[in-house]
Amino acid sequence: MPDSTEAKQLGRPSALGLEQILKENIGEGFMIIDPGGRVVEFNQLWQDLFGLEHLAVGDSAHQVMVEESGLIFDRNPRAFSELTSNANVLLYADTGDGSHHIQFSFDPISYAGKHRGIFCTARDITPMIEKTVEVNVMASKAQRHMRELAELSDLSAVVGFALDQIYPAYLSKIKLLLESPQVSIYIYQPAEQTLVRQATLASAGHHPLRVKLSSSDPIAKVFARSEALITKAPPGIQVPVIYHSKVLGVIAVSGRALPYGLHDTRLLKLAATRLAVLIENANLYNDINSRRERWEAVFTFADEGIVIFDLLGRIVGFNPATSKLLGLSVAEAMGQPFERVLKSAATEGFSSQQIALPVRQVLSEGETITKSEHLLMAKSGDTVWTEISFSPIFDSGGRVTSGIAIIRNAQKDREIEEIKSDFISIVSHELRTPLSAIKGFLSMLIKKDFGDLNDKQFHFLNRVYQSNQRMIDLVEDLLDASYIESGKIVLNPRPIAIEQLTREVVGELGSKGIEQQIMIKVTRRHRLPLVLADDNRLRQVLVNLIDNAIKYSMPGSEVTVDFKVQGDELVTSISDSGVGVPPAQIDKLFQKFGRVYNPLSVKAGGTGLGLFIVKNLVESHGGRIWVTTREGRGSKFSFSLPIAKQLPLLS
Q1: Between 93 and which of 73, 211, 420, 555 could a Cys-Cys bridge form, CB atoms 3.0 to 4.6 Å apart?
Q2: Is the peptide bond before 190 cis (omega within 30 degrees of 0)?
Q3: Residue 293, SS3?
């Protein structure tokens, strides 16, 4: 370095002045080393940086920096005396525990072409290294999160309804997501109370094939508690597969060297939630598909005709049985109005437009109509009797979306019934004549027209007479039933005072009521209008209903007949306090040969034709009949008849 005299001549500060300027203004630790490797100068920052309290001028720089400082350099520093080049040299060192990091910069000092020493600076770069490490950690985490998001995105892309394809795809994605080689999916089997392994990547001996719910296996515990579980020995994680609080199964993961944590649990829960949706959708799809296949089989192979119609009454479903019945192809029927395809043939008692009414009731009111008779006309012009049941089809919100008609070919039944009715009619006619003759002769014997009778003879003849009368009543009922079914009932309606007729019937049956200690009461609150009815047939209705009330009442009870005007109808009700009718048997009351069995029915006897005839006679008059009953409390039979309209007075 130049001496002070030379420095002054050059207008520069002296060496001593330069050293003082460096000490006061440089912000780093520095040390000046002579060509021999000895310390020439240093500042306080250098001393503080290395904690060298006894550093002195003349000390060996190599010994101070390498041996006494305890620093570990990134490469072996050469002897400082050898740093004679003009190139700058950078070295990095840190303490053994990595708590401090130092950067060294060595610059040669040259003057007048000669090497004069080394200028060395040092600075603590620990905060920068820590920031770099922190940034690297954050970058690593971000990279990991990006990878996890990518794997979760791939999981969400797994779709379909074939679980045998969904499970393997899920296993491979979960393996990458959690970096775990052993992954298995278990599904609950309720019938066996067991979790069965449906798919796995686990090698033999890692995940069991079946897990009983009663076992202590972690998989069983997770299913029972519906909570995730992390196991430490061996490291593993199990998460329940849950759909709307319903546990479907368990995902088990293991085999990773690093322990599993809460973050892994969250990731596996996300995967399990998505898998639960896929499983439920697949089960729902398979169930719907199975039902569709069953419905298609029924629709195709059923003996009954099946027709489905939309809200506009147009046909949207037409099965082969209906096609065969009507002689129409599916193409001819589809999209056509219901009544245009299923044409009603006009006949006595049946309108050609009758088929359209139940369709409207089903679609507009949501009614179900069962077993209604219709005479349909086939494409060929032939007619066939059918029994059709109509029902609405509802959506999940209870709204009618369409309707269905089930058509049964009743032609053979109708023909058989006609044969039976003809047979019963013929037999009844043939029986009525001799029975009437027997009745006449018995009546003459009982009246002693052929001589006196002792008490025993009179008793037995009277019983024979009663039995003969029951036979005549049975024959009359059979004939009436036959006439009703064949449409041969002839009515002669005229205005009738029903109260007077009722009192006459009560008078005729009064003795029977007295025998059974039953009082018959006829009540009315107002003057009654006349009804339009056939005198004899109305009498038959009243006799049957009042006689039944007496038969099925307990001794000491009361039978009441009352009347009520409702609009254009007069309602007559016959009430008793008898045994009543069980709810399950009410539908049998008005059926042909329908009998309700109870303790009094065996004693009362009968054929089961009475109420069948009564119902048809009332309906033939344009009225209705119904019953309200409570088992053990009695019954109330009511029927309505149209009120006879008054004719205008003649002038």
Answers
A1: 73
A2: no
A3: helix
